[in-house]
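Quick one, T. Sequence first:
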Amino acid sequence: MKSLKLEAIYMYIDISSSRHVFSTLHDGTKILTYLADSINNAYQEHLLTPFTIKDGDAIVGGVADFQLLPEIYNHCLTIYYSPEFKNRFSSIPVVADEALNFYFGAGIGHIDTSSDEALRNINIVNGSSIINAIEASEKAKTIVKSQHNQKRSALHNGEDYFFDKQPFKFYCIAETKSFGNAVNAMFFLAFEKLIKSDKQRDLFRIKDNHPDFSNIEIGTELGYGTLSKADISSRVSVLIANSDYFLYKKVRLDIVAFLADLQKMSGGTTHG
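Structure tokens:
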């Protein structure tokens, strides 16, 4: 039977310290199932392999279109902070406290499969993209543990992109190492370095998901609803003015453009 070889990005999303943060591992399974279902519903037309629970405390899935990587990462952030997620899992302390973290490993490479049907089964499909995604998740875990246990001056790691503000600790590995490093640097700049506070993090996410929102609507989402409309608008204006939101947007666009060009160099196709 002839094997198909496709360029792809796979993502391996692993719950941090799952055996310690839940009273029962079933809680972690419910959260991962919810996250996987949300991604699958939002990107069902683009997925090579739907996101599926693997190894008990992680989900893995993949797409052929490299440009979808930042979208899916941002989708995970949106789910994490959504009222529905908090309400659904409010009985789990680590969710109620917004202390739940994940390792988001992205693997750029290829996959091998014998058919489209096999491609849909994560237990059958294999290739460097999946291997790289799993290794990237482990790398994110190593970086987080190093930062928590050591001083920065004690680290000798040239790939030290530590995501502190975001609950999804990102890392990418590509078949060509420098390509993965470039993605890591841009993600770190956009989703970590350009964000100076939790309010700015929330502001960027709200403006990404609701580009047509007025300052009043943004302020309401940020929790300023008890203030007057004038005060809400003023606070949001100051927050935007003191942020690097427009530079953040440029970096996001640059990430997409880089991934599109990387896919062209790899011989794959894009959706834009």
